[in-house]
Amino acid sequence: MKSTYFCVVNLMKSSGMLIVIMSLAFCGGIQQVLAQEDGIVLGSTRVIYPESAHKGVTFNLTNYTPWVYLLQSRITPWPREDMAEVSNTDLIEGDEKDNPPFIILPPLTRFEPEQTLALRIRLTRQQLPTDRESVFMLMLKAIPSQSSDTQKQNSQAKATLVLALQNNIKLFYRPSQLPMMDASSRAEQLQFIFHKGEITVKNSSAYFVTLNQLSVGGDKVNLAGRAMIAPFSQETYMTSESIAKTVDWQIFDDEGRPTPKLQRLLH
């Protein structure tokens, strides 16, 4: 059975068209399909922009649905409430912190069935920290087109509700001077402090670290939307344990895959 991710509803007590946007944020895993196997498929769940990419980087997505969409793409600052303690915008002065130094082309385009789109992302000015990664949000909004029959029906109705889907993907800017560290090394360098039912995770690296899972004494910790830990910062989580001997954890690599699970004794 085919699945779709938009619907049109006639509302009789208002006028005009109301577009309702459903947002999905890919904070971790390798979930790349927006609407199962017949939806819009993302090339990845995150974008790595190395400083050496002077001509920009490409992000691909494919429309495996039978419908035409209007695709809107833009880059925004990553929400501060989703950042542990320190963000790249703390290191940028003035109004520029709300104006990401990237452009994405095309920002608005028609997205045909079976079409693969190559979005081009380019750095427009160098104002970002060079001693750590910076993170931004790539926002992809797919608004479904309407057939002539649907448009005719809508013209007879007093209002139309169109449900669009917006996906928020992490865009990491990676300076060239950072020490080389693969995902396994980033996972291993994490430090853990357990005290009175709380576990503090310290990230001493220059890279963002996103936890896939964290367990204390065998019990999973609720990351509560705070799985990403900024460079040179830490995050504290509540646990159900008053006394714990071990901590287990995994993080996500650059492709959105979980690293091997690690375990360490707590002191």
Automatic annotation (TrEMBL):
User: Which Pfam families would you find in this protein's record?
Assistant: PapD_C (PF02753), PapD_N (PF00345)
User: Sorted alphabetically, which keywords does the UniProt record give?
Assistant: Chaperone, Periplasm, Signal
Chaperone among keywords = yes
Q: Where in this chain does the record put each Pili assembly chaperone C-terminal domain?
A: 201-258
Q: Does the keyword section mention Chaperone?
A: yes
Domain Pili assembly chaperone N-terminal, by residue range, is 39-178
What subcellular locations does the record give?
Answer: Periplasm
What Gene Ontology biological process does one annotation of this record name?
A: cell wall organization
Please report which protein family the annotation says this sequence is part of. Belongs to the periplasmic pilus chaperone family.
UniProt protein name: Molecular chaperone
